[in-house]
């Protein structure tokens, strides 16, 4: 079933706010002219920004609110603004069915708390997970989850993450049987915590699902492309994600410093520029912007707060794709099949 993608945009979220969020939405609209939007935030600022984007203006409605969730607010504080903030009203539009999905670049903890309360978790899911696509050396990106929504997870949480991550990989990357692995400190069966070993045992005993459980994977193999889905608790996942992002910035800055250190190195840069441009593109986080909360009865995506217009546009495209391919239904069906196979 093909769904018309109407997306609620928290226009006030992110480090830059209205200007960048609408520039990204406009870029996505130019590339996908079927997109429609609900722009949530201060109407005066939104209308001023829309003057530069007539194509976006023609496809958008505005929900006015002056309430904003700051980056410093705790989730418990932000929840009190659920009915008055741009973030809360964007999520509420998904709950009411006025939008197929929501995108925000605001406070991650607040977004998670509001989305969980408003949309509730799917049957069979104890906790939603934050999942993102990251680049690899293989033919496909890799899905990593959880990236920080749940710091402590038991074996059943990890198994649920695996089922949801595999459904996401099939939806976003078109894979028939994604390869799924658990992040661990070694590949041997006796390695890791009780929770990780128990989760592996449950996944090995599961048949009939469109996924392949390959066992454990270590941190130095995250970007090799050997698997399609990597599952872990939110504590380990967030550390792994920040380490990958930091390494990408380190490599980029190191190359820039090396190529500007002398006249000879500058000449070398000109000769090798096609290769360095390819590397820069591959390491640019804006090309993989957009993390989705899996396990909710609705589509909600988190854009990086520092994303530029291209990054926001990529997040909007991903949101539209998940709406069109009905990711919620895919996850629901996989969970039903998982329980039907006698899984714990």
Overview of the molecule:
The mean pLDDT is 87. Strands 3-2-1-4-11-10-5-6-9-7-8 form an eleven-stranded mixed beta sheet, with helices on both faces. It is α/β, with parallel strands linked by helices. It is globular, with a radius of gyration of 21 Å. Helix 1 crosses helix 2, helix 1 packs across helix 11 and helix 7 crosses helix 8. It has twelve helices and eleven strands. The protein has two domains: 156 residues, 3-Layer(aba) Sandwich (Isopropylmalate Dehydrogenase), CATH 3.40.718; 163 residues, Isopropylmalate Dehydrogenase (3-Layer(aba) Sandwich).
Instruction: Return the string of H and E elements.
Output: EHEHHEHHEHEEHEHEEHHEEHH
How many alpha or pi helices? 12
Whole-Å distance between the termini?
A: 31 Å
Rg over CA atoms, rounded to whole Å, is: 21 Å
Number of domains: 2
Low-confidence stretches: none
| Structure class | alpha/beta
Number of strands: 11
Please report which band the strand proportion falls in: under 5%, 5-15%, 15-25%, 25-35%, 35-45% or over 45%. 15-25%
The backbone outline, from C-alpha atoms, is globular
CATH topology of the largest domain: Isopropylmalate Dehydrogenase
CATH class of the largest domain: Alpha Beta
Biggest sheet: strand arrangement: 3-2-1-4-11-10-5-6-9-7-8
CATH superfamily heading of the largest domain:
Isopropylmalate Dehydrogenase
The percent range for helix content is: 40-55%
From the 3D coordinates, which CATH architecture of the largest domain would you assign?
A: 3-Layer(aba) Sandwich
Q: Can you summarize the main beta sheet?
A: 11 strands, mixed
Q: Average the pLDDT over all residues and give the rounded result.
A: 87
């Amino acid at each position: 079933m093909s769904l018309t993608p109407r997306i609620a945009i928290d226009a006030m979220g992110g480090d830059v706010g209205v200007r960048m969020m609408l520039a990204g939405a406009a870029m996505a609209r130019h590339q996908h002219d079927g997109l429609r939007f609900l722009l949530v935030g201060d109407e005066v600022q939104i209308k001023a920004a829309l003057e530069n984007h007539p194509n976006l203006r023609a496809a958008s409605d505005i929900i006015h609110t002056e309430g904003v969730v700051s980056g410093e607010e705790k989730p418990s504080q932000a929840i009190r603004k659920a009915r008055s903030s741009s973030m809360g009203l964007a999520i509420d539009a998904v709950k009411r069915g006025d939008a197929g999905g929501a995108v925000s670049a605001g406070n991650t903890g607040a977004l998670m708390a509001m989305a969980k309360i408003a949309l509730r978790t799917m049957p069979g899911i104890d906790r939603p997970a934050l999942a993102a696509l990251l680049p690899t050396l293989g033919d496909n990106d890799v899905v990593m989850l959880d990236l920080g929504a749940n710091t402590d997870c038991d074996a059943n949480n990890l198994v649920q993450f695996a089922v949801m991550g595999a459904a996401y990989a099939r939806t976003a990357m078109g894979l028939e049987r994604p390869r799924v692995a658990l992040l661990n400190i070694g590949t041997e069966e006796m390695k890791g915590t009780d929770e990780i070993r128990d989760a592996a045992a449950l996944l090995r005993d599961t048949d009939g699902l469109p996924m392949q459980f390959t066992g454990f994977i270590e941190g130095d193999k995250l970007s090799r492309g050997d698997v399609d889905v990597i599952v872990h608790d939110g504590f380990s996942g967030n550390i792994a994600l920040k380490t990958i992002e930091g390494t990408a910035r380190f490599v980029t800055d190191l190359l820039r410093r090396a190529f500007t250190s002398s006249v000879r190195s500058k000449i070398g840069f000109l000769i090798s520029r096609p290769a360095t441009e390819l590397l820069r593109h591959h390491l640019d986080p804006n090309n993989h912007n957009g993390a989705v909360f899996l396990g909710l009865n609705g589509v909600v995506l988190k854009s990086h707060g520092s994303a530029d217009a291209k990054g926001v546009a990529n997040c909007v495209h991903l949101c539209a794709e998940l709406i069109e391919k009905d990711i919620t239904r895919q996850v629901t069906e996989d969970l039903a099949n998982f329980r039907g196979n006698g899984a714990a």
